[in-house]
What we know:
By secondary structure, this protein is α/β, with parallel strands linked by helices. It folds into 2 domains: 10-103 and 211-253 and 271-304, Rossmann fold, CATH 3.40.50.150; 129-207, Putative methyltransferase TM0872, insert domain (DNA polymerase, domain 1), CATH 1.10.150.170. The chain contains 14 helices and 8 strands. It has helices at 10-16, 32-39, 51-60, 62-66, 102-106, 132-138, 141-152, 157-170, 176-187, 193-207, 210-222, 238-251, 284-289, 307-319; strands at 22-25, 43-48, 70-74, 91-97, 225-235, 272-274, 280-281, 297-303. Strands 1, 2, 3, 4, 5, 6, 7 and 8 form an 8-stranded mixed sheet that branches. α2 (32-39) links the parallel β1 (22-25) and β2 (43-48). The protein is globular, with a radius of gyration of 21 Å.
Amino acid sequence: MSAYHVPVLLPEVETLLHGASSVLDCTLGGGGHSAALLERGMRVTGIDRDPRALAAARDRLSEYERTGQFRALLGNYADLESAGLAASERFDGILLDLGVSSHQFDDHTRGFTFREGAPLDMRMGGDADVGADELLNTIDEVDLSALLRAYADEPRAARIAREIVRRRERRPFATADDLVDAIRAVLGPRSGPPDFARIFQAVRIAVNDELAGLERALPKLRDRLTTGGVLAVISYHSGEDRLVKHAFREWSTACTCPPRLPMCVCGGVAIGDTLTRRPIDATDSEIAMNTRARSAHLRAWRRTAGVAEVVATAAEGAAH
């Protein structure tokens, strides 16, 4: 597999998307998942907001691109039309591998890690308005506290936010060391990589609008599936996994009326089935080879009803 990105949960993804002829890889990265799907004869459209990742994937998959089996588009999966994807295009399988690729972590100039001297940037692509440095230097203390509480589940979020604001008044935040020092000042000298990783992840999620983008994207991706098509999502954060779980549950439920009502009045229609009642996690052997897989959770959902069927069923229910 590519040195650019080691694909997580690859055998499980291949199993879930088995039988698909056309696949939309919404987070192409270095092309690890796409390469495996292309080898199985599928047609793949890959999207990524990171120009460097896209260039690496195109170089790796150039043979498939020449034959027309693969195409690469620069853009954000939360806004497919702006990436050049026609509104009428549908896919048998859609894959989302959220989070940051191995190469983005390893390249300290991208600012995703707490490596000494690394710049505070964390932008996945040019569509992110501000980097982590500008965010930390300008955000209101109350908003920063709420961000850390929501995205890092940090019980001392208010104290860390206060410390960041106090320190930036003396000198603007510029490198990973600045944020690490602020975290240590609150959590104490025994704080270490797990604490730093949690806080850095929260800042990265805010910089790239990741949770809001995922929430906007999920129903749009659902509507891009053909009948029988599968949406597979690999998440690395509890907030991401929660959004995916709730969306899949809602789409698989026929009626959302309160139990006390004698009959359904919502006209709800189940448009698919959740294929993973519990998330699929990486095996111990995979985690030993790729530590990034440790926090990965894979969920999948299959569309069983087309738009015309949903409209007809809803109209029939309303008539009764």
